[in-house]
Design a protein that fits this description.
Length: 562
């Protein structure tokens, strides 16, 4: 059935073309939007009801958009911050948005969060719903980028970073970016409450032939270049100014002076023995420079899009500041090829030889160790590494239960399995006459075959409430952490979104777990911080999940990082 929307001073009528809304086919709904800081009404906020239907996907219940339902029902609050409407019977999530405010989902614990933990709006025939939503005003950081002569610098890429847990390690990672205009001006908006640092990455772009370094005239000491600089003008992130922003706070007129430092070349040659499917050498490889990072810190490309090796394989990368880097060598084609080479720059690096070999393949079979029927092609196998390796690391599913992961580069990998809509888990790995655990790593430098991944379907399940320090039911994200630290990074760490303070955790592999809750997905991996575990492990609940069992345990909400 199609619906017509009409708006009048904050009143929304959702009317069927043939049948007007009545108490039998709709509910009355009132949405009140208020400013979370001033508590004043928020006029002209866009209100969106997304029709939802529940479906089990993987380890948790997920809400999906049925194909036979409208995309959404929407309206806008009036001058008093209120929208009244008749809404067709159904299940919805409610989203509000407005310029100068963070996007808000009704029931979400954190402003700007659109993930699990948000409440579902249940509209039943004849019901009257009054929904109050606090909208958090955005924080803003803005200023100018200047050179050492106090002139504006345009084209500088600026990165807003906050502390996250990446692969179980805490560090600064990029959450937003801006580009300095011709006045050197930059502006970060739509920022939530929290702590941030700002990094400026100069655009020292060489061309594709490696030209671009400038030797200064009438000066000694060789070439210089602008280097990656943290506000207020330092190169070490540990010395960067941390902006502790409150909701709605605006900081402007930040003068950001780039640092200049020595600039060096990385020169060398790519020894390329690869050919494409036609037997031709194909496209010449590209070389990018990536900054090597501290644990948990996100790196990035340095010096623009990279340089392309010449016909003889030689390359010249200018404008590289001192530091530790990874050279990422990529060659597109069929098949593609890649190499990752560490390099430390404290002066010009010459005569670097990089051998580019064709990507290799890892393959095997998988079987389900039970009588349950399972669509084997619904299982996807990936190989993941730390640090991540660029390229294809996901298998091609096969009806016969086989998998093939192609175009791999040398690295240490572990298997990661995705099985949407299947209650199944990876129990063990058989290879070369040995049995390995699901989280064990493999050092691949060439093709490998003969793996057998063994799955079981006797998963358990869990449910309970998320509780605060005083025992009251609250919201959060429940976590079942394997008691064995070796398995903390494997895919059997289970989470579930919370609805009205309760969680349901399906498809838990048998084993011993520590149960708790965290406020946000930003804290995923916080348990790998020894200090945090030392302070909080005693507050976690211990539970044993046996095959095909159901456990009931409350998840205490634990604090985030200090």
């Amino acid at each position: 059935m199609r619906f017509v929307l009409s708006f009048l001073f904050g009143f929304l009528i959702l009317a069927a073309q043939d049948t007007p809304p009545t108490a039998e086919n709709s509910c009355a709904v009132e949405v009140k939007a208020t400013n979370a800081v001033t508590h004043q009404p928020v006029p002209h906020a866009d209100v969106r009801f997304n029709p939802m239907a529940a479906r089990s996907v993987g380890q948790a219940q997920t809400f999906v958009q049925p194909a036979d339902l409208p995309a959404a029902y929407g309206g806008r609050t009036g001058a008093d911050g209120t929208l009244t409407a008749r809404l067709p019977v159904g299940q919805y999530n409610l989203q509000l948005s407005r310029v100068e405010f963070l996007n808000t989902q009704y029931g979400a614990r954190r402003p700007g969060s659109m993930g699990p933990g948000a409440a579902t709006v249940s509209c039943t025939a004849g019901a009257s719903l009054s929904l109050s939503v606090e909208m958090t005003p955005q924080a803003v950081l803005s200023g100018r980028v200047l050179d050492d002569d106090d002139l504006p610098v345009r084209g500088v890429q600026l990165m807003l970073q906050s502390q996250r847990y990446l692969q179980g390690k805490r560090g600064w990672s990029q959450i937003g970016w801006a580009s300095a205009d011709d006045r050197g001006m930059f502006r970060f908006s739509e920022i939530g409450k929290g702590k941030y640092i700002v990094l400026a990455q100069p655009a020292n772009f060489p061309d594709f032939n490696g030209r671009g370094n400038v030797i200064p005239l009438n000066a000694s000491g060789g070439a210089t270049t602008y280097v990656a600089t943290y506000y207020p003008g330092v190169t070490d992130p540990a010395q960067a100014m941390v902006f502790d922003l409150a909701a709605g706070q605006e900081l402007s007129n930040l003068d950001f002076r780039l640092r200049r430092g020595a600039a060096f070349h990385i020169r060398g040659r790519v020894q390329d023995s690869t050919v494409d499917s036609s037997g031709s050498p194909g496209i010449r490889p590209f070389i990018n420079v990536m900054r090597r990072t501290e644990p948990g810190e996100m790196g990035g490309f340095i010096g623009g899009p990279g340089v392309q090796a010449g016909a003889d394989g030689r390359f010249n990368i200018p404008n590289v500041a001192p530091g530790s880097y990874l050279l990422n060598v990529n060659k597109a084609g069929n098949p593609p090829a890649q190499a990752m080479v560490p390099v430390t720059v404290s002066g010009d690096v010459d005569d670097l030889i990089i051998s580019l070999q064709p990507g290799f393949t890892v393959s095997g079979t998988y079987r389900v160790d039970s009588s349950d029927k399972l669509e084997l092609r619904s299982i996807f196998v990936s190989l993941v590494s730390d640090p991540p390796v660029f390229g294809n690391t996901r298998s091609e599913g096969k009806l016969d239960g086989g998998f093939t992961v192609k175009n791999l580069s040398p690295a240490r990998y572990r298997f990661q399995v995705s099985a949407p809509n299947a209650k199944v888990y990876l129990a063990s790995i058989q290879w070369n006459g040995r049995e390995y655990g699901p989280g064990d790593e493999f050092d691949f430098s060439s093709a490998a075959s003969g793996f057998e991944l063994i799955f079981r379907t006797d998963v358990g399940s869990g449910s309970g409430a998320v509780t605060s320090d005083n025992g009251a039911v609250t919201d959060g994200i429940a976590v079942y952490l394997p008691a064995e630290p070796k398995r903390w990074i494997n895919p059997f760490i289970r989470q579930a979104g919370v609805q009205a303070g309760r969680y349901t955790m399906p498809s838990i592999p048998p084993g011993d777990y520590l149960v708790f809750a965290i406020e946000s997905f930003d804290y995923f991996g916080i348990w790998s911080d020894p200090e945090w575990m030392k302070e909080n492990e005693s507050k976690m609940k211990s539970v044993k999940v046996t095959p095909s069992s159901t456990v009931s345990v409350d998840a205490p909400l634990l604090p985030g990082p200090k």
